[in-house]
Design goal:
By secondary structure, the chain is an alpha/beta fold. Helices cover 37% and strands 23% of the residues. It has twelve helices and 16 strands. The longest helix is centred in the C-terminal third of the chain and has 27 residues, at 306-332. The protein is globular.
């Protein structure tokens, strides 16, 4: 048997999280190999996804679309709506972003290889289906929800899986497009996000790009008995004759449960969808995965361990992501009328919706909280949710080191938000 190739860092998965990690590590002077089961140019998501400008700034990425202020975001219920006029989320073409990150990694000295199926790992050595082997000081699993599972994680329960789909289409009839957005009370180029369209946690997000392209993003949880994102997307396209041929797009499952607590065994670190590092309020994990990759590299480059990465990630993001997972579960049990009622009572307003879009905790003053109390007491579920999210924000950001205190912390998190 041939001797394994010796590297400092081996990355499995060459999508956004994996390619970004490879770039960061190579730029830090490490010997890096990044593998993907697909051809390198086909790695990662194949659709348009939302990424905050804050996340892009943190990882030092300027996308080809630029960093201009995004358009207003309309959260539309049956009879009421909330408009977020200023927010931080950019719609980015994922194949272009992946290619940009892969090029950055290659220029920095990383080796990227496609069509390599990883089938086994023993300690620091990873083996492919063709018998090739690599020995690495650190291994990063960025292979996604349905990836290689180097830490043998338990499956994500069906009730925590969103079936999402996205497509960019030609505009066949500009007048028809204008009439469609006018019917929603949305200006061309602004984002129309109709919520609860299939009941519970479901959305149809439509935006016109210039005069000749329209982007459609849909998602729902089939385990609740709803149609999946692909069916919702295709239904809209069939119902709107002004929407023409598909230019690009894709579909897939997104894990919405709170992030996995165990992110490493000391040799392998999991990041991105493989770690359930997804902001479940709107199902985006692109920024979180890239930041996790940077945190892994920064941690080991300064002499820390992967256990330090695990704790640092949770202490920064664990409480926030868990709190918004509680919001998602609350939303999942609502009807479209429930959502309308909460909007009408002012409990879901621009400040709260904007925080969710930007993937941050709401910054609400005492006066604003007191002003909402009369409406909140009429919505016991909202009061309970506020208490739960507050507890998750506080507890989730206090992950202790592994040991007896960690086990007690995990038990408390499980009581607050079972997975």
């Amino acid at each position: 048997m041939a001797q394994p190739v010796e590297v400092d860092l081996l990355v499995v998965g060459a999508g956004t999280a994996g390619a970004a990690t490879a770039a960061f590590a190579a730029e830090a002077g490490m010997r890096v190999v990044c593998l993907d089961r697909r051809p390198v140019e086909r790695a990662g998501a194949r659709w348009v996804n939302g990424v905050t400008r804050a996340a892009l700034a943190e990882v030092g990425v300027v996308p080809r679309e630029g960093l201009a202020s995004p358009p207003p975001f309309h959260l539309i219920g049956r009879r009421h709506r909330v408009t977020v006029r200023r927010h931080d989320v950019l719609d980015l073409d994922m194949p272009a972003l992946v290619a940009q990150l892969q090029a950055r990694a290659t220029v920095a000295g990383a080796t990227l290889r496609g069509e390599v199926a990883v089938v086994g790992r023993e300690e620091h050595t990873v083996t492919s289906a063709d018998g090739e082997r690599w020995r690495a000081r650190w291994i990063v699993d960025a292979s996604g929800l349905a990836g290689v599972g180097l830490l043998n994680p338990p499956p994500v329960a069906a009730r925590h899986l969103c079936a999402a789909a996205q497509g960019v289409y030609e505009v066949r009839d500009r007048a028809g497009a204008a009439a469609y957005f006018a019917s929603l009370g949305v200006l061309p180029g602004e984002i129309a996000a109709e919520v609860g369209i299939a009941g519970g946690y479901s959305v149809r997000n439509v935006r016109l790009h210039g005069d000749d392209r329209v982007a459609v993003l849909t998602g729902a949880i089939p385990a609740d008995g709803h149609a999946g994102g692909k069916a919702l997307r295709d239904d809209l396209v069939r119902a709107q004759p002004w929407i023409g041929a598909m230019v690009s797009g894709g579909s897939g499952a997104i894990p919405l449960r709170r992030p996995r607590e165990e992110l490493t065994d000391g040799t392998v670190a999991v990041i991105g969808d493989a770690a359930c590092q997804v902001f479940s309020a709107h199902g985006s994990g692109i920024g979180a995965g890239m930041i996790a990759g940077k945190l892994v590299v920064d941690t080991v480059a300064r002499g820390g361990s992967l256990f330090d990465y695990e704790r640092a990630w949770h202490r920064r993001f664990g409480g926030l992501f868990a709190a918004y997972d509680a919001v998602r579960r609350w939303n999942q049990g609502m009807t479209a009328d429930d959502i309308d009622r909460v909007m009408a009572r002012g409990l879901l307003d621009e400040a709260f919706a904007g925080a969710g879009v930007d993937q941050v905790a709401p910054q609400v003053g005492v006066a604003a909280v007191l002003g909402k109390l009369p409406a909140a007491v009429r919505e016991p579920a909202v009061m309970a949710l506020a208490a739960r999210t507050g507890a998750l924000l506080a507890l989730g950001s206090r992950m202790p080191p592994r040991g007896r205190r960690r086990r007690a912390w995990s038990a408390a998190m499980q009581r607050l938000l079972p997975v």
